[in-house]
Amino acid sequence: MRLDKFISTTTTLSRAEAKKVIKKGILINDKLIKSPDYKVDEINDQVILDGKRLVYQKYVYIMMNKPQDTISATEDAIEKTVVDILKEEDRIHKVFPVGRLDKDTEGLMLLTNDGELAHRLISPKKDVVKKYYVEVSGELKEEHLPIIEAGVTLEDGYKCKAAKLEILESNEDESKANIYITEGKFHQVKRMMKSLGTTVTYLKRLSIGSLKLDENLKLGDYRYLTEEELNKLNK
Q: What is the top EC class of this enzyme, as a single word (predicted)?
């Protein structure tokens, strides 16, 4: 990898800023290098900047408990994004959210720079199950279960793929449930609940495939996936 790219990948410096730093000299394996196109062995070479060794990671995987009033994007001129929550040292990996959660939806958000894994997780063809906890105003009934399982039809005529509804509590005024879907259409859970005559008042994603939200993560907190979590997710 070119030295300027290596530095921009492992620090918050842009490619142009990295070139300026390189002109002053970068210590690589105890040799002073001043050429931005110097080829670095990103795994084995020891590259030192400001007295610290730069460590290269090709892919990173971050679990976040997304808070409300935060959008699922890498950047936005007005709204706070999930990437804005990350510390500077974690943003250098240029991660992006896998799929999306509405601004007012909480819960599990996976951020990564692994495009292949992201595609596998959000592609409807892969049938990766996403579990949500939902609270609604209105009554969820046993008669709604087969409707959801058969694939409910939304207000615009779109027929959802088969899903599963698990009613936890229910009365005429409000209900609580878990819902399992394999798609990620715009406002899908809210629209599914609307088709049943109820209105979502709270929504939280609990899992994506084998990856479950860490109950110890407070809203707005995040951590890197464990090796075990990543191995299960890749399967």
A: isomerase
For 82, left (φ over 0), alpha (ψ -120 to 50), or beta?
alpha
Note the pTM of the prediction, 2 decimals.
0.83
What are the structural domains of the chain? 3-54 (3.10.290), 61-124+210-234 (3.30.70.580), 130-208 (3.30.70.1560)
Catalytically annotated residues:
102
Distances (CA, A) of 72 to 44, 89, 231: 35, 20, 25
The Cα–Cα gap between 140 and 144 comes to 7
* pLDDT, block means (10 residues), the chain with 235 residues: 90 90 95 95 92 89 97 95 93 91 97 95 92 98 96 94 97 97 93 97 98 97 96 91
